[in-house]
Amino acid sequence: MHPPLTLHRHPMCAEIIEEFQKCHLEHPIAKFFGECTELKIKLDRCLRQEKALKRKANFEQSKKLKERLQALRKETAESDS
């Protein structure tokens, strides 16, 4: 199962999403028998790669935030004593 396939939310995979949706429109019955499977696999890989990039960016952002919070706590502890 994949997330909702909106082009503005998945700019990296926009081309594959369009091809996948076109395949489903052109083959309404055959899609159940594997007609669009190759595109589905490509789409899954693209979405997985996109998610990994987002995860890495979020991790870096949280790392910076933790460092900033530690610095603030240190300053607060020093000013209290």
Automatic annotation (TrEMBL):
The record's PROSITE patterns line, in alphabetical order, gives: CHCH
The cellular component terms of Gene Ontology attached to this UniProt record, alphabetical and capped at eight, are: mitochondrion
Against Pfam families, the record matches this protein to: Cmc1
Q: Which residues form a coiled coil?
A: 36-75
**What family name appears in the similarity comment?**
Belongs to the CMC family.
Report the protein name in the record.
COX assembly mitochondrial protein
| Residue ranges crossing the lipid bilayer per the database entry | none
Q: Where does this one sit in the cell?
A: Mitochondrion
- What keywords are annotated for this sequence in UniProt? Coiled coil, Disulfide bond, Mitochondrion
> Is the rRNA-binding keyword given for this protein?
no
Query: Where is the signal peptide, in residue numbers?
Result: none
* Keyword hit for Cytoplasm: no
Q: Which organism is it from?
A: Gossypium hirsutum (Upland cotton)
Organismal lineage? Eukaryota, Viridiplantae, Streptophyta, Embryophyta, Tracheophyta
Give the highest taxon in the source lineage.
Eukaryota
